[in-house]
Amino acid sequence: MARILYELKGKDDRRFSPYCWRSRFALAHKGLEVEYAPVRFCDKDKIAFSGQTLVPVLVDGDNTVFDSWAIARYLEQHYAEAPTLFGGAIGEAEALFVNGWADRILHPVLVKTVVTDILAHVEPEDRRYFRDSREKRFGVELETLLEDRDERAAHFRELLEPARAALAAQPFLCGDAPAYADYILAGTLQFCRLTSPYPLLEKDDIIYAWRERMLDLFDGLARRAVGAHD
Ligand SMILES: N[C@@H](CCC(=O)N[C@@H](CS)C(=O)NCC(=O)O)C(=O)O
């Protein structure tokens, strides 16, 4: 049965989407083999069959699922016998909270911190689209975001405090072993790691040590990704 994950591709085959990383981790957690299909910003015809324009999109036999959260829920429901992503209904509800925290609190700050660097990592044909769409979103020329980058990065590190509190008590956000809430935050940090040389995390940060553990999972799935900056 064909199982394909359509995911964002930048220059030199960099797969930097935080949402696609959530799905990559989730598939690996379930032990499912998957073929990765690259989609560039200006190459969305490839996912037109899904009826929308964002990745990740998962095709699993006759099923098409888009949106990383919907993909995680689909995998949990359809592969219930494989290791659980949520650990039950309460865990799923808590993971939804982490999903919202990452999307609504962390990403707006993080994206502004690294977005200017992303320009160098998208194909020349995608660069104009990327610049125009992001400048429209942020209301400024991308280069101006570099001016207060240090302050923004410090703010981002502060926003990670809830994760630090959890990791002070246990090795993973989900407890003794990683599960979907860990994959959400790992996807967020992987996005930065694959697009920007900016030293976002301090090496003595408990989050840095946790990220190292996440990079080691699944035979170094995330560690060996093309284009990592550290
Ligand atoms: N809520 C969606 C967000 C997906 C999303 O924003 N994907 C980005 C990649 S990071 C995308 O496809 N962007 C295409 C574009 O900006 O044109 C999810 O969790 O999957």
The separation of the N and C termini measures 36 Å
Specify the helix fraction band: 40-55%
Shape: globular
- Biggest sheet character: 4 strands, mixed
Bound molecules: glutathione
> What CATH architecture label of the largest domain applies?
Up-down Bundle
Please tell me the total number of domains: 2
Give the strand line-up of the largest sheet: 2-1-3-4
Enumerate the spans where pLDDT stays under 50 for 5 or more consecutive residues: none
Strand content: 5-15%
Structural class: alpha+beta
Q: Which series of helices and strands comes N to C?
A: EHEEEHHHHHHH
Q: What is the CATH class designation of the largest domain?
A: Mainly Alpha
Predict the CATH topology of the largest domain: Glutathione S-transferase Yfyf (Class Pi), Chain A, domain 2
Mean pLDDT: 96
Radius of gyration: 17 Å
